[in-house]
Amino acid sequence: MQVYDSSVRQTPVISQLKAIYESRGLLRLLVARDLTVRYKRSVIGIWWSLLNPLFTTAVMFYVFNTVFKSRLPSGQAFLPYLLSGVLLMTLFNQGLTMGADSVASGAGVLTKVYVRPEIFALSSTISSAINFFIGLIPLTAVLLISGQTPTMKFPLVIVVVGCMTLFATGFALLLSIAYINFDDSRSLITIFLMALQYMTPVFYPISVLGPHTKRVILLNPLTSYLQVFRDVFGGNAVATFHEWLMMGGSAIALFLIGFIVFMRQWPKVVAKL
Amino acid sequence: MAKGGGKTVSSEKIVEVTNVKMAYRRTRHRVSSLKQTAIETIKRRMEYEQFFALNGVSFDIARGETVSIIGRNGAGKSTLLKVVARVLPPTSGRVIVRGKVAPMIELGAGFNPELTGAENIMLYGALLGRSVQQMKSRIEAIGEWAGLTAHLDVPIRAYSSGMVARLAFATATDETPDLLLIDEILSVGDEDFREKSAARTFEMMNSGCAVLLVSHDLEAVKSLSTRAIYLENGAPKVFGSPDEVVQVYLADVHH
User: Fold this and answer.
1) ipTM of this complex > 0.90?
2) Which of A6, A113, A185 has its CB closest to that of B105?
């Protein structure tokens, strides 16, 4: 028989993570819910979810192609460079905002039933990751159109997506606490995300940057995700060990920080829900 | 006749709540935006006050017993339910709950309009802590009990509100827990279903699980519970036989 004793508290991170792992049945259902709601059981629904990144890419390509295509090293093409950037940023943005929203708006359930709220955030980022994999279909088409072939390294995309999922989940957990505590945090995060978007080489090649700016941009962990992804899927960037380390390190760090802060803060904010 | 419809009360304690306090730190001016927080912090005007939503609550519930909580709005009834449901860890004191807990939550809170009836049954059950396999095997029985067999494959946005409530009730009560948490007795759907759901609620209450009931329906409190607690400002004012507790409460309200 399961026994709840409130005096046994603040269990270490590992056992909390284990509790999340034990709720994987619920996690699977929540992911299925997110995907069903997003795609509305239709093929059009699936394409609809890609409309935003594809349209953004088309506009950016139209505007920036002449300026930037010659600035990429030979063998690299601007259109797949751009689309891979937009797709990965979409995963980040979507996972982050949906994850934070699903925790902040889950009050009806989370204040009444004992469910680990982290599961809600995780389900949103995982369903965004699945959405991202569907985006690899148009990306492959764009690669072929640009005269490139997917490299043999492409299975490593899974590592990139795994890291991005952890990164976005950690971020989403922090954000959900802010959402609940402060009504105006939503508009502030929009500004922050826009700034972050421009500080990430989504549509410009790193080579166009001045030396000082370049140093700053390379300090942005999201840059490493984009560079690694472009490297392993099509070879439109070169990722060194440094980028891999930054990607893996930031994923684990942000996930743990988000998780620990959330674990501590949740009992305080749940009263406000 | 004993209270609570002659249930057999065993000595096995399902819930033990010992001197539970729930303290919040809240700002005096109810600051709820970052902008305000920044301004108030700079002006050094952030004043916090300690606020006790629960202040020294102790009680226990044995298997087969129904304990009711009454009190005015804001007395801490919902907070107490959250603490027992282990959603909120108490600031101090101790809560022990032995066995499975099922809250009769606002019907349909865990539902999604885009999902079919069957999918919502699965999800709702999983949220209530039941296994996926168990839920899979129960979908048809739940749908049948709710009288919705023909509608299980339809997204519930096409349901009437009564149908949603029936589905939620049927799912929530499909399994008898060790502890049932009820926030207001639910009356659901049309006359027929209301009788059916009331009967099921009482059946669950009488089936040997412990029940914690929060209600404004004082007649229900008197007829259903074995003991009652009257909460005032987070502290139990009276704890004892439901008739006495209701009497004290009524005297206070009419005062």
Assistant:
1) no
2) A113
